[in-house]
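User: Here's a chain of 320 residues. Predict its fold as tokens.
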Amino acid sequence: MKLLITGGAGYIGSVVADRLLADGHQVVVVDDLSSGHWDAVPAAAELVVGGMAAAAELLVDDERFDGVVHLAARSLIDHSVSSPETYWQGNTVETLHLLGAMRVAEVPRLVFSSTAATYGQPEQLPIAEHAPTTPTNPYGASKLAADLAISAYARAYSIGAVSLRYFNVAGAVGRFGERHDPETHLIPLALDAALGLRPEIEVFGADYATADGSCVRDFIHVADIADAHVAALASAEPGTHQIYNLGNGTGFTVLEVLGAVEEVTGRAVPRRIGARRPGDPETLIASNQLVRTALGWSPARSTLQEMIEDAYRFRTEQCR
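Assistant: Prediction complete.
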């Protein structure tokens, strides 16, 4: 298939692009490089530097594409609270532009990078796809709005769409790993603190009703995320929009993750307990039963140690 990947120069996008190329697909990456890196794009992929307007133009004017993998997004929870307009524009309005171009070009399939943040503070754990969607921050709300739009376009224009609601993505694959600026994800922050590349890591709240007072999160390896995209593209059926959670189904507290980083690196992780972060749910753990049944997908790299070891290897190679 000929596939367009928005945000393909980012962390997840680079791994997904590499995986799709390995399966023999033709890949065109569109990325404005505002948070991605040109050297993260696999050599066999074509890179078009630009935003959603460039992606829409390609879909309409270029040779026919068989599908779109839409990964480009704004994704910082605290920033979404302080600057919500950036998220409604970047995540919702831009997705509408992309859907409009897909409609005109009659692109038959879409895989959308959604998020567990659409659920907000869950009523039951683990979180299943039928759980109420009550996001607690503009990031989650803007992605939920995009999901709703995708459902409508799929029904009206016979697009086969799949939304993958990621929980916390971790790990690395070869030369593809996390290089965010600023970095906000727990494991790379903890690794940098252990390596002395930052003085400490801040823990956002230690007064939650959890085992040690810190938030609980479900982590999934980025390589498993890429495998799920392959399965989702193959499963997309015209006129339908399927939504699947991607997670391990196991939760770890923030402090447990810091302890695991210390075990893998053999180094202490300096930390400071700070205030709760606005819009942060206490516990997010996925039910992945639906995606297991529907797509035959399951996490193959499910241990926290595997994810941290791969991320540590990537980070130390960067530091050489």
